[in-house]
Amino acid sequence: MPALSSNRPISPLPRTFYARDPRRVARELLGKVLVRKDSHGPRTARIVEVEAYLGQNDPAAHTFSGQTLRNAVLFGPPGYAYVYFIYGNHYCLNVSCEPDGKAGGVLFRALEPLTGIEQMARSRALTIKNPRDLRLLTSGPGRLAEAFDITRERDNGTDLTSSDSTLWIGSDGLPPGPILLTPRIGITKAAHLNLRYLLRGNAFVSGGRASQVRRPLPRTKL
DNA sequence: ATATCGATTATCT
DNA sequence: GATAATCGATATG
Fold first, then answer.
1. CB < 7 A to strand C: residues 113-152, chain A
2. Is 0.90 surpassed by the pTM of this model?
3. What percent of chain A has pLDDT over 90?
4. Residues 6+ apart with CB under 8 A from A192
């Protein structure tokens, strides 16, 4: 059964949550809730798919070749939004991990809409024909960014640990359910590493069925 | 259902 | 000048 919307209060995750290896952060972010607060009212969605990027040792990471203006947030303190623009078309959301000075991050790849679905649909209606199809709202990194009106200009550097922010991450206490580990999607470098984390059987995971037929999370792994 | 392709621009070599 | 952590449209089986 899919995770359902709960009316439990959502409390922000502390900065210490993010001050760890991105693999651990990625795994534990599954089931948590992304919140957008603005004049349209709250949008919330459950995190169902993420990928870990390992900083200086990871050829696929934006931080592989060192710090630049664009990736500075990933080298800074943990718990802040890193938003980048890709293919001349899409924004993607990450959260910085590891202690200040060490690079690392987690990419948000798919969400399950909970509340504020009408506003997500309005934001996505600019691009898609059928904003009534919930899967099309937030199933993919570019899609979820558009559904939440996430842009580099507005959100890069936002503190995601504060419920005073217009964008933040919290927990409503629901357990995430079974987690699967697969290769990352859409990259050319270090494409074989199992650094994509998803909730097993969740309908909002991106990439179709083939990308979900992989292995359970090993107990010994981060 | 799967494959291929074009869009469109910030960033880095 | 080439590339990119993508998406949506179109073509084909």
1. 124, 127-129, 136, 140-144
2. yes
3. 85
4. A183
